[in-house]
Design goal:
- The structure is a single chain.
- The chain has two domains: 82 residues, SH3 type barrels (Roll); 88 residues, Alpha-Beta Plaits (2-Layer Sandwich), CATH 3.30.70.
- It is built from five helices and nine strands; from the N terminus they run H-H-E-E-E-E-E-H-E-E-E-H-E-H.
- The mean pLDDT is 89.
């Protein structure tokens, strides 16, 4: 029996799924009119007047912004922009923008700006763009996936006599990196840099203090 091409396509959709590698979270609600205006301003290189509600605040901030780029990170969409009267580029979650009005004035991007360069610096892992050389030991097979899915293009992996794996890689120092390391629990030990090792150790101490409390 010959299968029609449209039926094959429907069958394919029932056979393929994407599963997130981390704990799934529900996406925040974005006002459709805000999203449309933000994207139109990006497309047309125009400034925006927005009302922005910071997390935990009740009073909205009024900003004149120069949209530079839109970034989708997980379920959250961010507007990368310049804010008039403020220094440096800012990252604003679009779901916190309450209203947006496109202006006639053209937006201005920093000279030589490249969104790919910003991503490679780790800006959207919410770091400061600082590079570190990470040296870490992975135990109990927790680093085996790095042979097929490297942490960085320049990484080196060395299998040690006790079955553990030593990693050396240069990459951005971001909170996202720290969350990933903490998520591996006792499967990994940061050796260098000392600053990251200290932050990891302090976080573990704080976790222990929480779980030692009597309930």
């Amino acid at each position: 029996m010959k299968v029609h091409e449209s039926e094959r396509k429907r069958s394919w959709l029932n056979k393929v799924r994407t599963v997130p590698p981390s704990q799934p979270l529900l996406p925040p609600d974005i006002k459709p009119a805000v999203q449309q205006t933000v994207y139109e301003a990006l497309l047309m290189d125009r400034q925006l007047d927005i009302k922005y509600l910071k997390r935990g605040q009740k009073k909205m901030e009024v900003y004149r912004v120069h949209p530079i780029a839109a970034i989708q990170r997980g379920h959250i969409t961010y507007l990368y922009c310049l804010i008039s009267g403020h220094e440096g580029l800012r990252t604003l979650p679009v779901h916190r923008i309450q209203t947006a009005m496109m202006r006639e004035e053209s937006s201005e991007a920093p000279k030589g700006f490249s969104i790919d360069d910003e991503i490679n610096k780790g800006r959207f892992g919410f770091g400061k763009g600082e590079q570190i050389t990470l040296e870490a030991i992975f135990y109990h097979g927790s680093g085996d996936h790095l042979f097929e899915t490297p942490l960085a293009r320049n990484q080196t992996l060395t299998e040690l006599e006790n079955g553990s794996v030593k990693l050396i890689a240069t990459l951005p120092d971001t909170p996202q990196l720290m969350w990933w390391i903490l998520g591996l629990g006792d499967g990994v030990e940061v050796v260098q840099p000392e600053t990251l090792r200290t932050r990891i150790s302090a976080s573990i101490d704080n976790m222990q203090a929480l779980y030692r409390k009597d309930r």
